[in-house]
Write a structure and sequence with these properties.
This protein has 128 residues and is mainly beta. Helices cover 11% and strands 57% of the residues. It contains two helices and ten strands. The chain has helices at residues 17-23, 28-34, and strands spanning 7-15, 40-46, 49-55, 60-66, 70-74, 80-88, 91-95, 100-106, 109-116, 119-127. The protein has a ten-stranded antiparallel β-sheet with strand order 4-3-2-1-10-9-8-7-6-5. The longest helix has 7 residues, at 17-23. The radius of gyration is 14 Å and the shape is globular. The two termini are 22 Å apart. Belongs to the calycin superfamily. Fatty-acid binding protein (FABP) family. This is Fatty acid-binding protein, liver isoform X2. One of its GO terms (molecular function) is lipid binding.
Length: 128
């Protein structure tokens, strides 16, 4: 695997958060909170094995998965889904019934795109 996702990443910019969360039917209180929270994401990568922890002042979510194997994921809105992570052109792609999540590294920046229907949430984080 050419891309190393390991490290700590701090969110600094996001677009379309409210529209995306409404598209996946997230609770309204969570939608209001989303614009004020800047999560810290820690990624541990060992080959095709990943542990990703997202921390906010309210809670932490940790997901562990292997590329190519079905895993259970906790979502931003607190639900649990089953999905298979794939590696496509150096990007981690996770497709579920509700949304698609694409994570990529561009220099010292991590870009995440969450798509549900015609709505896409874009989150940009810097390595810290």
């Amino acid at each position: 695997m050419a891309v190393d996702f390991s490290g700590r990443w701090k969110l600094y910019h996001q677009e379309n958060a409210e529209d995306f969360l409404r598209a996946i039917s997230a609770p309204e209180i969570y939608i209001k909170m989303m614009n004020e929270v800047k999560p810290l994401t820690t990624i541990q990568q060992n080959g095709d094995e990943f542990i990703i922890c997202v921390k906010t002042p309210l809670r932490s979510i940790t997901n562990s998965f292997s590329i190519g194997s079905e895993s259970e994921f906790s979502t931003m809105d607190g639900q649990k889904i089953k999905a298979t992570a794939r590696l496509v052109d150096g990007k981690i792609v996770i497709e579920s019934e509700k949304f698609t999540h694409v994570r990529e590294i561009d220099g010292e920046e991590m870009i995440e795109k969450f798509s549900a229907g015609s709505v896409t949430l874009i989150r940009r984080s810097r390595r810290v």
